């Protein structure tokens, strides 16, 4: 039989591990938010006032598919599932839902803040395109994997009594990692050129004008 001291030590270590899990389940998603909103998760940032030549300069894949980028993607993907079952609950997992909702609110606030930093100085350059394209839209695209993952966490937390814990921890990680990899695959050939060029409504207006002039 184990001694009382060994039993108390085991209990202390178990409690410390549980407390660490609870803290990590809230901190890691917050770090993921800063990674996505402040550094664009390694994807290119396009200033609204940048010229056409500046927008297309540089290597769009310089930060993608590197070991550190893959490591952060895996780490933050795993972090989104840590809140599942971290706090005891009956029925719905209120902690997982609360962490996901708070992460979403924080992310939305940081998107607005970081996207408007380029206009902080009174003598900032004017926007190149109408509506300061791609203001906000580029953040929406880069944040999409995280947003979808948070929705998955909320749905699984709502039905926590019907879904086992390990599924609620693994599925958000798989969703985030898969979507990030898919976004990285289509970034250079399709997404980045779309964001670098004029807004779609301007292109549509120009095309419509050409058609009307041609008919005239």
Q: Helix amount, in percent?
A: 55-70%
The biggest beta sheet reads: none
Number of strands: 0
Low-confidence stretches: 205-215
Q: Radius of gyration, Cα only, in angstroms?
A: 22 Å
The helix-and-strand class reads: mainly alpha
> How much of the residues is beta strand, in percent?
under 5%
Broad shape: elongated
How far is the N terminus from the C terminus? Answer: 96 Å
Q: Helix-strand pattern, N to C?
A: HHHHHHH
* Number of discrete helical segments: 7
| Average of per-residue pLDDT values | 90
Give an account of the 3D structure.
The protein has helices spanning 4-38, 52-56, 67-79, 94-115, 137-158, 165-196, 200-215. The chain is mainly alpha-helical. The chain has a domain at 25-42 and 59-118 and 128-192.
Q: Which helices and strands occur, and which strands form pairs?
A:
Blueprint: H1 4-38, H2 52-56, H3 67-79, H4 94-115, H5 137-158, H6 165-196, H7 200-215
Helix pairs in contact: 1-4, 1-5, 3-6, 4-5, 5-6
